[in-house]
Design brief:
Layout lengths: L3 E4 L18 E6 L7 E6 L6 E4 L3 E2 L4 E3 L6 E4 L9 H4 L1 E5 L3 E6 L9 E4 L3 E8 L2 E5 L2 E5 L3 E5 L4 E6 L5 E7 L27 E2 L10 E10 L2 E9 L4 E6 L4 E4 L18 E4 L3 E6 L2 E2 L13 E2 L4 E8 L12 E5 L4 E2 L5 H5 L4 E2 L2 E7 L4 E3 H5 L12
């Protein structure tokens, strides 16, 4: 992340900043990891602390079906039912203590409530649909192929243009960052990075809602939702500045790193955390050694579970892939291309595949929702 500002802010922080009527704007520091990590200063029309009512919390804990998986699995992501409400549409599929992975197919925009995840950064990958992510920091228009990165503690609303939306959602219990090896000592993305600051879309069109009333914010803390009712609109900022804010990055702006022989998965890395990484597989030219084998070699995930979410295109190493399919290859078991695909790949010049991969450093647990959409028998698909 790098510095950004929108709206009006005072010349110096922590100094008097007054409205036209002479009363003070209310300053708020929003930070992560105490005062040790990135932060922003926001100037509210009203104090953000005014709570009118607190409802009874309710559980949204994942329903674990299999916490000892040692088998290759596949899931039909588009079998997750569409639902009107955004939060209710989020179905947790795979979880561990570092990350919750969900699929969602919401029909309607969030209009009568706001949402804040207080425990996790969120990465929302937009598979289908367009719209606007509205936050205290401004608006972000999104569409097919966008990663929406929302820092923990950010109150937001998703506004959709249509009723046909498909989302792949990752909740991270440690901060989402760009890979360290792509950044210099000052945080700037280096020349060998597969994307740069120009590709990162920051919030625009700051909307200051000078409104009093009853505004419901559903706050997620660990595995519970706490209904809070604030007496002023959550998006009442007159201005802000800092390094902490939501942003968008399109998978279509990821520039693939290629070589003479097959490149390992880290060249596709897009984000990192302490517990997992996110990678982007995009259309690219194949390896150009005269004897190269474009198909990936067999490999053992000794220290990580590999989850691949198929977005679009043809996947030369897999048979019978559908849009929205997920494959899970757990640590401890080797996996690789399906029978016949290695020979078939020789001589191919390029791939049009598009996919998102999540590699976790702790085993993933399957939920009941995952079992409901499982493509059974995937583990046998390597037998000729």
């Amino acid at each position: 992340m790098h510095y950004h500002t929108l709206g009006n802010i005072p010349h110096k922080r922590h100094t008097q900043f007054r409205k036209p009527d002479g009363t003070l704007y209310s300053e708020q520091l929003i930070s992560t990891e105490g005062f040790s990590d990135i932060y922003s200063l926001v100037y509210h029309t009203y104090p953000p602390t005014q709570v009118g009512k607190v409802g009874r919390p309710y559980s949204v804990a994942p329903e674990i079906a299999d916490d000892k998986n040692m088998m290759h699995r596949a899931f039909e992501g588009f079998k997750v039912d569409k639902q009107d409400d955004y939060l209710k549409s989020r179905k947790m599929i795979l979880v561990n203590s570092d990350v919750y992975i969900s699929l969602a197919a919401p029909r309607h925009s969030m209009t009568d409530y706001f949402f804040k995840n207080s425990s996790a950064d969120e990465v929302i990958f937009v598979h289908e649909g367009t719209g606007v992510l509205k936050t205290l920091f401004g608006n972000l228009r999104f569409g097919y192929g966008d990663y929406l990165v929302i820092p923990r503690g950010t109150i937001y609303q998703m506004h959709f243009d249509t009723h046909d939306n498909r989302l792949f959602i990752v909740e991270s219990f440690s901060p989402i960052r760009t890979p360290k090896r792509y950044r210099n000592a000052f945080g700037q993305l280096l020349e060998h990075s597969p994307f740069c600051e120009r590709d990162i879309r920051k919030p625009v069109d700051l909307e200051t809602h000078d409104q009093k009333g009853d505004f419901q914010v559903l706050i997620k803390k660990l595995d519970n939702i706490y209904p809070y009712h604030f007496t002023s609109h959550p998006f009442d900022a007159i201005g802000w500045d800092g390094y902490l804010y939501p942003y968008a990055f399109s998978i279509h702006d990821f520039e693939p790193i290629t070589g003479r022989v097959h490149q390992p998965p880290p060249v596709h890395q897009t984000f990192e955390t302490t517990g997992f990484v996110i990678c982007s597989f995009v259309p690219r030219l194949y390896d150009y050694h005269p004897d190269s084998i474009p198909a990936p070699y067999n490999h053992s995930n000794v220290d990580s579970d590999e989850l691949l979410y198929y977005v679009d295109g043809d996947f030369m190493s897999r048979k019978h892939v559908t849009r929205g399919m997920l494959t899970l290859h757990p640590l401890g078991i080797p996996h690789g291309p399906h029978p016949g695909t290695v020979e078939k790949s020789i001589g191919a010049k390029e791939t049009k595949e598009l996919a998102v991969m999540v590699d976790t450093f702790r085993p993933l647990k399957l939920t009941k929702q995952a079992i409901d959409i499982e493509n059974e028998g995937y583990w046998k698909s390597w037998v000729e």
